[in-house]
Here is the input.
Amino acid sequence: MTPLETEADLAGLIAGARDPLAIRGGGTRGLRPQGEALETSGLTGIDLYEPGALTLVAAAGTPVGDLQRLLATENQRLAFEPMDHRPLLGTTGEPTIGGVVAGNISGPRRVQAGACRDFLLGVRYIDGTGTVIKNGGRVMKNVTGYDLVKLMAGSWGTLGVLTQVSLKVLPRAETQATVVVSDTRLAGAVRAMSAALGSPYEVSGAAFDPAADSVFIRIEGFVDSVAYRLGRLTDLLSGHGTVTAIEDTDASDTLWKRIRDVEPFADAPGDVWRLSVKPSDAPEICGRLDAEGVLLDWGGGLIWARVPSATDLRGRLGAFGGHATLVRADAETRAALGMFQPESAPIQDISARLRARFDPRGIFNRGLMGRT
Amino acid sequence: MEMPPPNPAILARKSRLIERLSGVLPADALIHEPAETRAYECDALTAYRCPPMLAVLPSTTREVSDVLRICHEEGVPVVPRGAGTSLAGGSLPTADSVILGVARMNAVLETDYDNRIIRVQSGRTNLSVTGAVEEEDFFYAPDPSSQLACAISGNIAMNSGGAHCLKYGVTTNNLLGVTLVMMDGTVIDIGGAHLDAAGLDLLGVICGSEGQLGVVTEATLRILPKPEGARPVLMGFDDSEVAGACVSDIIKAGVLPVAIEFMDRLCIRTSDAFANAGYPDCEALLIVEVEGSEAEIDAQLARIVEIARRHNPVELRESKSPEESARIWLGRKSAFGAIGQINDYMCLDGTIPVSALPEVLRRIGELARDIGLDVGNVFHAGDGNMHPLILFDANKPGDLERCEALGAEILKLCVDVGGCLTGEHGVGIEKRDLMLHQYSPEDLEAQMAVKDVFDPAWLLNPAKVFPLSQSQARRTAATAA
Here is the structure.
């Protein structure tokens, strides 16, 4: 079916739908909900961009690449650094901003700048009855009524179909550099990242790649400032391992794209899980995973784990707080395991009742997020 | 502002309620004598007062759960209260309600510098969260002006901001987890020390829900390492439009100050006369603060000053020392107090796109002239969060009503230029009846559906946020039971 090009047409289609709908933006995130595809890629275009107010409003089907190119013309960017899932999942297509928001897709800069949901100022969406709802707006501070904006971010299309999103953007840094601490091992790596993130030097990325036995600490900003903070961090981390630096901006940028997109696992076999944990728990949790490979981001708070097919990591968290999400697996494993961590009974109950109010007929993205 | 009349059937259950609550609370935590409940008759929106039927001051999550369960069983509305500093009437009681104050729950439960979090009971004051971690050179970023008094519970209920949120975000961006007690007494834990909670972002919708979804008893908050230093620059302009253009140019240049504050002539003069801050006499004043090492601060201020010079400032004063910084901030920080010395005032917090600033200031001036009241403007300019201060005389009959009418017009103006009714204070009762100017009935229905899920009987802070006409069917269904 040709993607519809207006919100009103989409609303009409949803109001008249009798069967489940699988909402699809660019189709790059490897989701396979039940039902006929409902394409949002026809809803494109920038509705507003005010660089002096750090505000961008775009239709949900607008390609992320288009936004990034537009922002670059004013030396600005999406500071939450959304991951591109294509290398890891082997998918094709153009990621859309609606898909980014629906999955609350956030990259390494999460530790400093925040997640996608922190930059989302407003949404328009169509609920399960075909009614168009708006929430939030285009200003940075807004506590007018309930914050359904946050609720929509990361709801993976189970509450409604996003049609327009309003985002806070930030200046692009003049330059960046990366401090590399080698020979740390896992526990030492988490300690080093914690020391860096606990310093006043505005670290905007803290990752560990065990395959390289290297901790990467990113700093961004004006040239003089980055040089100064590089020096201070080098001193601060000298007791944690062998310290070197990547001072070339492009080389540093390439490295962080590789971490953001979990490229080390792209060509390696097995399922890929994403675990969100308390950073200091990461070494012990990693020890329980029997993983063929791990990659730590967010100072240890985000563990990417590559495991043999059909391994369920959710039980391995045990008494540790946090949760695990299955990001890459074959259809059979996905069907058997589902994608998300089961929640406590009262939270499951609240979530189910919220879904029943937003989508009373249960037609959106069946099979995702506890929706059956 | 209208509040629903008390329900006689609920008032008739008072003695039974006292008996049941005294079974789960220590005697000194249950307040029912009229002379004592009067202490809870209002918050910082003092124009509206009504003593509650009872007030309770639980000390534990368990006690909160017991109180809510009993009130739920008895069909009694509950109004949660932090420190009572709401400017929007968020904790204004009705005569048939129970005030649930969390002030006794103020302990630090855990500080964890490795993971950069602190876990506190929600009655703890905002500033004392920073107080608990500053020895280790950490701080809690959201800084509402009432931070000495206001409680984290209220910060979460209103999603409070502050002067420094241009860089650090507001409460919702610094909140990682909560323990929430629902109206039926169920206790749930959401989030924790990890950066993103599983499943739907319930934390996101609880933050800013004005105590209508549940009572937060514990919170996990992000703490941040203190910057090496911070210093402001002060600039004066002859024209507020030029000041607005300067703000926009600073932001476009890629400098991200930690705060950009704006004051208009009325506020400049009043606060300077009060605090003797040495402010220039001009149309618009900006205070722009940056952070970093000494050299980093110098470099950023140099960029900002260079941009400001292009806009022909009448004054440009870069702080070189902590003393000079304090003097620059002195007038701004005493602005509200200074105006309060000479007048009663109502402080609004509508937010606008920064580009609309000149038009909005001009229109506010016209509206104020038409109605015959003065308005001063203090403004978090970096994020468009206005603070128009409408001056009035509470002793003069009709002045409060005229002030409220002007306030409503100003807030509608904020919405009409693409902004919103409230940037950081919350809706409460103050902006409740303006909600239909910003949202359609369908938009509000979607929000009320969330309350239906968390509090099906509509007993938690029921007469707030939504226009009474919109929430009436739900509220009356609840109390008819």
User: Anything to note?
Assistant: Residues 172 and 227 of chain B are 21 Å apart (CA to CA).
